Amino acid sequence: MSEPAADQRRWSGIFELPILIVTALLLAVLVKTFLVEAFWIPSVSMVPTLEVGDRVLVEKVSYRLREPRRGEIIVFHRLDGFGPAEGLAATVRSFFEGLGLVQPDGDIDLIKRVIGVPGDTVEVRGGRVLINGRRLREPYAAADDRDFAETQVPPGELFMMGDNRQQSDDSRFSLGTVDADVVVGRAFVIMWPPARATDDLAADYPRRR
Questions:
Q1: Scanning 56, 106, 191, 194, which has the fewest C-beta atoms within 10 Å of its C-beta?
Q2: Active-site option among 32, 43, 60, 112
Q3: Residue 206 — φ and ψ, nearest 5°?
Q4: 112 part of the active site
Q5: What digits encode the pLDDT tens for the residues 146-169?
Q6: Domains of the chain (ranges plus CATH)?
Q7: DSSP of 18-65, one letter per residue?
Q8: What is the pTM (predicted TM-score) of this model?
């Protein structure tokens, strides 16, 4: 190969590398924005289903086609006095959060289980959840004997609870019901650590009895 041709290929490779990097980053942003992102579990509120440090995959397609369903585990933004930070640093942090590489801000991004959907009446009596007067079977939930007075879930809102009932600030307390518009997506896979990896989160819906 002649020297000019070798130089041309070398320079071509140098220019192609940044293009490939930018393309890969753009694809990652598009996937994170519209399809799937990873979420790092920041607190004990979902123990034993999700442990601190677990990484779950959150899909964003389902709720463009239908409403959240009772029993689904969802990630959502908390907007009661908090709001997503703005600026370049916040954008970069959000990107790495979406890859599951950075722990999310627990004051902004939360993960809980849908217990009540619009129109449901929710009550907790002796630690047992009643939906429209009927007991919800919850084999995933840690025991808690506190009561919660009957309330009806408003239109466009969701009643959320953590599986670790004694250590979850959820719709029973300061969080209140959650506007469906701030839902990010549905957690359906634990992808890390390998010993806890599972794809059965989507099937872990509560049943009434």
A1: 194
A2: 112
A3: -75, 155
A4: yes
A5: 999 999 999 999 999 999 999 999
A6: 35-208 (2.10.109.10)
A7: HHHHHHHHHHHHHHHHHTEEEEE--SSTTTTTS-TT-EEEEE-SHHHH
A8: 0.72
